[in-house]
Amino acid sequence: MDVSGTSKNCEAKRSIRVAVDAFGGDLAPAEPVRGACEAAGCYSDTTVILVGRGDDIKRELDALGDVPTNIELVEATEVVGMHEAAVTALRSKKDSSIAVGARLVKEGRADAFLSAGNTGAMVAAGTLFLGMIPGVLRPGIAVPVTAIDHPVVIIDVGANINCKPLHMVQYGVMASVFANEVMEMQNPRVGLLNVGEEERKGAQLQKKAFDMLQDAPINFVGNVEAHDIFFGGCDIVLCEGFTGNVLLKTCESLVQKLLEFLEGEIKRSIRRQLGFALCKDVFKAARRVGDYAEYGGAVLLGVDGVIIISHGRSDAKAVKNAVREARSTLKLNVNEDITEAIKGVEKSVDVSLNGSSGAE
Q1: Is residue 314 a contact partner of residue 31, using CB atoms and an 8 Å limit?
Q2: Spatial contact of 31 and 52, defined as CB atoms under 8 Å apart
Q3: N or C: which end of the chain has fewer CB within 10 A?
């Protein structure tokens, strides 16, 4: 598989349309609206479509004052709550902002859709409305994180908690294309998250996935442990959705708690406060490590369209950067390259190890 990417600049070669869920996330609608306007102001070649209750959106736009001309509104009268059952909510709330946004992509009225709302509903909407890229069995959420001093892509972080070995192989292929083209990682190293580096470690899923990954058309470096994420053992971490979600949230909370601890300790004495004054740049850098807004969101790889799932607490900066990520994914033709890359998987690996015919 050729996953060599070409760096592209910010200038667009064609006009694109990105839909933003104005009612997704804890800070909606104020922050999504503000972030969408900031993105529209930055990318004059991109139309940003705000999806949600029109009166509320207009109120936020009026409060901002100077609104870019490349902002549009699409009415959606309902909202999927963060704790609602995904598929049930989509079926009962056909005019929800998530359902309407996904349909805009399906109908060709938008090129991408992003939301900081219900993750399960976003995965379900992407799968049900857009379908899968030919040959892809399950979607996977690929999230870029900053592992202190370098970026790492983790897949899957919550879309599929019932993985089969072939799903893991396809995640490795899709994430390799994404990491190479969007993250500009040359020949990214793919590691299988496990309880040890030895070849026969782990449960049956990990053992069978390991055997299949060795023959996959990717740069597979074997099993990796959690510490390898931070010490440069790989560029892409493969895991099933349950483990990936726990891993991501543990990393986020650990950084946040550590920073809170340091801030508390600094305030305990004048000497420490003077030392902090000399090290402010260091603390700013540390804050960026745990700032999910830097990347904006996670890409739902495998669906036949561009879906970006942002953090539930996304502010305007995160929304703006999520629009940037959607644009990059579109401009670099990531889905087209995944389509080509995925064709070679079953020719390369022994699909009998999947535990079924490979159709699921």
Answers
A1: yes
A2: no
A3: C
Residues in the chain: 360
From the options 3.30.420.10, 3.30.70.260, 3.40.718.10, 2.60.120.620, give the CATH code of 16-251+285-354.
3.40.718.10
Calpha distance 61→50 (Å, rounded): 11
Supply 130's token pair. Answer: 């857009």
Minimal CA–CA distance to 230: which of 150, 296, 337, 154?
Answer: 150
Alpha helices in the chain (DSSP H): 30-42, 54-64, 86-92, 97-106, 119-125, 165-181, 204-215, 226-230, 241-266, 270-278, 280-289, 316-331, 334-342, 345-348
User: Does 268 have pLDDT greater than 60?
Assistant: yes
The position carrying tokens 């999520």 is: 322
pLDDT tens, position by position, 93-139: 999 999 999 999 999 999 999 999 999 999 999 999 999 999 999 99
Q: Compute the chain's Rg from CA coordinates.
A: 21
3-class secondary structure, 71: strand
SS3 249: helix
- Model confidence, pTM: 0.89
One-letter amino acid of 220? F
**Encoded tokens for 1:** 């598989």
Using DSSP's 3-state secondary structure scheme, residue 276 falls into helix
Q: What are phi and psi of 151, to 5 degrees?
A: -85, 150
Of the listed ranges 9-18, 54-63, 142-151, 313-322, the least confidently predicted one is: 9-18
- 3-state helix, strand and coil shares in percent for the chain, rounded to the nearest 5: 45, 15, 35
How far apart are alpha carbons 219 and 180 in whole angstroms?
Answer: 12
In whole angstroms, give the CA distance from residue 18 to residue 54: 17
- Name beta bridge partners: 20: 50, 114
**pLDDT class of 280 with cuts at 50, 70, 90:** confident
88-91 — which CB contacts under 8 Å span 24+ positions?
Answer: 89/118, 89/121, 90/121, 90/124, 90/125, 90/128
Sequence-distant (6+) residues with CB within 8 A of 200 are 207
What distance lies between CA 31 and its chain's CA centroid? Answer: 19
| Bridge partner residues of 145 (DSSP) | 152
